[in-house]
Amino acid sequence: xxxxxxxxxxxxxxxxxxISFYSEVLRLPTERLEEYRAGxxxxxxxxLNADTIIxxxxxxxxxxxxxxxxxxxxxxxxxxxxxxxxxxxxxNRLEAQGIQIESGPVRLWGAQGTGxxxxxxxxxxxxxxxxxxxxxxxxxxxVS
Length: 144
What we know:
CATH superfamily: 2,3-Dihydroxybiphenyl 1,2-Dioxygenase, domain 1
Shape: globular
Largest sheet: 8 strands, mixed
CATH topology: 2,3-Dihydroxybiphenyl 1,2-Dioxygenase, domain 1
Distance between the termini: 18 Å
């Protein structure tokens, strides 16, 4: 299965400080910043490249899901993008292996627009999102 990194999600304590760091120090362009500050979207993002973004989840998005007594997990989840046929095959493999799909399929916004995602965990409990986009997928999982 060929895939691309679509996005990573960082749980942040101070969203404005993190936005400033990534946008001013690393000079990454912001995505949906005005909408986030207006309260129209739940988080802001920063663009790494044409295919990949970093989402900054404020406390209200991650606090309810943090593990009791273990503090804040910085990495909320990461997302891979695959072609629709590979996504369907992955769903079947997860079911065959008895790996629980925790959420989805659900349509969500990402680095290439809105796509369909599922969420599941690896053996060490890291959360993985696998997504395909509705447009014609090429063999690398990129939207054409």
